[in-house]
Amino acid sequence: MILLGKISLAHFWTLALSAVAEAGSCWRNTTCTGPEDTSFPGVWEKNIYAPASRQVRPQSILEASGSRTEFKLGLGYNILTGNGSRIVFDFGIEVGGIVSVRYTASSPGLVLNLAFSEARNWIGEYSDSSNGAFKQGDGYLTYDITAAGEGLYTIPDNKLRGGFRYLTVFLTADSFSNATLDLHDISLEIGFLPTWSNLRAYQGYFHSNDELLNRIWYSGAYTIQTNIVPTNTGRQIPAVAHGWYNNATLGPGNAIIVDGAKRDRAVWPGDMGIAVPATFFSIGDLESVRNGLQVMYDTQASTGAFAESGPPLSQKGSDTYHMWSMIGTYNYILFTNDTDFLQLNWAKYQKAMDYIYGNVDSSGLLNVTGTRDWARWQQGFNNSEAQVILYHALNTGALLAEWAGDTTGLSSNWTARAKILAAVVNAHCFDEAYGAFKDNATATTLHPQDANSMSILFGLAAQHRVQTISQRLTENWTPIGAVAPELPENISPFVSSFEIQAHFVAGQADRALDLIRRSWGWYINNPNGTESTVIEGYLQNATFGYRSSRGYDYDASYISHAHGWSAGPTSALINYVLGLSLTGPAGSTWKLALQFGDLTSVEGGFTSSLGQFQASWHRHSSSSYELSFRVPHGTQGTVVLPPVSGKKLEMALNGKNIPFGIEETKTISITKGGSYKIAVRIK
């Protein structure tokens, strides 16, 4: 027998929790199905915000009496004395889950209170707003202490707090002016990404010579993690008048991708248009994506219409989000080649296409009757954004038809419809005098960010108009991001996620990187934010009151500070700067088309069911660079070298010289998997 000596209950539980954390576990009784380790170990892992354990504690004290700043375990460090005394604990990053407090009370009759906030702006004795009651915050949790001595309070499962950085703990003790509550342990069981025991087991990575871009990439990846939640932790609808409940069922499976950590905690297909590519190229968890899409098919109306959002919100009446469910299906199959999912839902997909194309009127344009959308101020009639999304839905639907093995001619039919639509949209929605698409086929003077960005990204804009549109988009820029004309005074990182991709497609890498640094760089460096995630939106006056300027009836604390629809740089930096993208299911075919911008070195990779894809490039000078890449066996692709107008190239592939003429675009076909190295000298 080994005598350990006297040990307090508090210290015992600290040791016990540490042992659990070291062993690793998944959320509650969920089976661990996630990867055990990262696919690409390296120095870049220092940028991963995800904690090393599902059990975490505060990193510091933001505010307390006695100028305390360090969080310490044990007795005598974190003491509340008297009524109204409080300590604000800072977890340092966005977190979410179930909080436990171990304490020692000097007497019975005390009340322990907890309040939560994502942003520093709203720390205090009232939590920020998440429940949808709009005009008021969520209040705080209370726990009556009935006995003196040591005790434990764990918040109820239905009070799970999906997203916060700051925890305010305060004491109510009206009858005990000298009463004390010693908080000798504050711990949190992480609730997001419930099937992963190792939250740092990323299946993709990105690293460049620009540390700001690296941090931005990983903030998008971490946001996606916080947005993958247990399927029984959705926000309760109808919204409660006070407090909050996160106990609603969101869909099938154990984990599902939602729009935000704090709220809405529901599947939103439009958000997935950005969040799903970011998921694939970073953490790689697509089980949650499948579950998110499946719930949209499971709740499809008899007309073929998809809901705007999954349960329990289950909002309806959005033509654009209907099409985003269709586009989301394409993205999921592109990344996974999950033919079982495609066959299971193929008939419903066709019904969805029939439904939306049935709203194309005699003008050849889609007549938008489901007017709900991402937050833009106006929608309806022949709205140009909806036309561009339909164009993309038709083209991606044509590819799905091929992958589904359709023999009825759907692919060619949908491709033909897309070509006709593009011609009509370019003829009726483009403002020649201004040089960009207007918001509708009518005589409007509004030139929206969403339609113009998507017109380039999805290839609808006539080629001779691309550069003009790209330039016009920059006229909405401020020092902290692009204001959306369709939502005045507001900066939407969701729509800006399409814009940065549009500039890359236009070959304007410097422009795209500039916008990333302005918008996402502003938030990641904002001391009032989470400094670890990407925000839903904000105002051009540099406050967090997204949409409040347009008459929405809620307080600014309702804004989500961990919103996957804003994670565009996480996929864009892989697809366009590193240059590696998939063109066939699971990467059976791929493209490598790097863009330098002002960077000198970039590397990254990701994992598909076919294996690992990895690339890197380094510029030695303005006249020479090296490109290395590794692709799985059984795949084939095309390397597109950056254009060098009017100059010759000397190029060697794996040490063998390859002659080129003076053509501006230089491509190399790679017919089998393996490792390759290309050395280029510009003469």
UniProtKB/TrEMBL annotation:
SUPFAM superfamilies in UniProt: Six-hairpin glycosidases
Matches recorded under InterPro entries:
6-hairpin_glycosidase_sf (IPR008928), 6hp_glycosidase-like_sf (IPR012341), Bac_rhamnosid6H (IPR035396), Bac_rhamnosid_C (IPR035398)
Q: One GO molecular-function annotation for this sequence?
A: catalytic activity
Residues annotated as domain Alpha-L-rhamnosidase six-hairpin glycosidase? 256-475
Alpha-L-rhamnosidase C-terminal domain location is: 589-647
What are the entry keywords?
A: Signal
Signal peptide boundaries: 1-23
Q: Does the keyword Signal apply?
A: yes
Superkingdom of the source?
A: Eukaryota
Name of this chain's protein: Alpha-L-rhamnosidase B, putative
